[in-house]
Amino acid sequence: MSSMERILERYERYSYAERQLVATDLESQGSWTLEHAKLKVRLEVLQKNQRHFMGEDLDTLSLKELQNLEHQLETALKHIRSKKNQLMFESISELQKKDKALQEQNNLLAKKIKQIEKEEEKEKEMEQAQRAQVEQENNDLNSSSVLSQPLHSLNISGMYQAAAGPGDNDETPLENHNNPVMPPWMVRHING
Asked: Which residues form the signal peptide (predicted)?
């Protein structure tokens, strides 16, 4: 095959393909025009129905069309009320669950408060017992300190001196009334 024949053959193939594309474009353009017309009519019907549902342009409707519209609205209202009731019941159920959870939490907190109050009461009782014990120990120390004081701190020797008189000089040094440790009457008893 010569190069001229190849060129002509390629030209015929391309021109055939181009004719096919143009034919397809014309068919698709026609189908798009038809589709556009259908969609336009449908849009007009939907807009008309919307106006009717909104209560507008009702003058053009016959009695049967008005009854049909009323039936459609009643059906739609039933669906709306049913959905609204369902949502309300779900909301009530959710609120009841939250209420129950809050009551349980409140009960737990009340138990914790009672437990804390009992612990505080026990601590107060222990503190009072410790105070009472410390006071008892202080009282015991005070009463034992009076008994453990040396005898010379008691003023018994002055009474003996008054009873002995100035003429009694035959006392022993232990019997001396100036003995700060023991009174003379105890010393006589020990010596005697």
From this structure: none
